[in-house]
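Ticket 4471: requesting a sanity check on a complex prediction with protoporphyrin IX containing FE. Repro inputs:
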Amino acid sequence: METKTGVFRTKISTLVIFSIAASVSASLSFDFYADSCPAAEFIVRNTVSSSSSSDPSIPGKLLRLLFHDCFVEGCDASVLLQGNNTEQTDPGNRSLGGFSVIESAKRVLETFCPETVSCADIIALAARDAVEIVGGPLIQIPTGRRDGMVSLASNVRPNIVDTSFTMDAMIKLFSSKGLTLDDLVILSGGHTIGKSHCSSFRDRFQEDSNGRLTIIDKSLDRDYANELIKECSAGPIQTVTVNNDPETAMLFDNQYYSNLVSHKGLFQSDSALFSDERSRKLVQDLANDQDLFFQNWGQSFLKLTGIGAKTDDQGEIRRSCAATNA
Ligand code: HEM
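Returned structure tokens:
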């Protein structure tokens, strides 16, 4: 356990400086690339920023990409490897995006600092920057992750949370990654941005023989349920998407928690955080206090980006993020 200083920016751009006591991997360090590639973080940020201005869906995609990378084989860019039966081919990863942003940053980095900056670090930095670009806190994260050599579709299902999971199942999976119930509640706040396919919450619908949708989950706010039906009826549920946060879709804020309190959680796994007594109080506190969310987000995000990080002589620094060097 080491203590580091982080700088966080609130929505109103107040600077808040505080200490983070988070269990980050021992061999990761702040400013890891200070000598070997001083522009590394700048280059990643620039790439994320320019791609997000031309495509506002990028921040959500990058944040989810990090989550799916870190939960399977650790934060080692295994999710980027292409080929038969790699993680990307699993249906649980079918709707992931943001790959081209990581690859563009990598191309620039290979020009300025060849074979130096890992794809795993680019994913973590890009997700960090994506959050900040849409109004979230700016977090200092340590770097020095190395890229993994293993990517198996069969590792995805056992390591990724499904929207139908019970609280107990979510807590168990998060705990296997060193994350607590509080981390589950706080990191689920990532659903304050981004979009989801209607097919991802089909368990809340019933579809009659004419393809007409009705919501079967009576715990959902009625107006919200009707809005979802309307939006999802616009086309095939496999292709239509809705905003994860119906109120402030493009902003990283604490609205997600207010949505949960008002029974507007998109997934059953979101609603569970408020209906379960073990997490209800934290959901309420986070709904009432955005600074509290941002501070907690910084700490949980650090833990997320440290999961199973490979360092020192483990793994490699890939030349292209889509393939191992060999
Ligand atoms: C805890 C259980 C979680 C479940 C069951 C879950 C499930 C999902 C599903 C099914 C989608 C929609 C995919 C689609 O239809 O395209 C989604 C989207 C998303 N998730 Fe989660 N997620 C969870 C936690 C997290 C965490 C911890 C983060 C980040 C730290 C996160 C970030 C996102 C983001 C940003 C999106 C939107 C992606 C986009 O816009 O393309 N999720 N999630």
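Notes from triage: Residues 1-24 have pLDDT under 50 and may be disordered. Leaving this open until the requester confirms.
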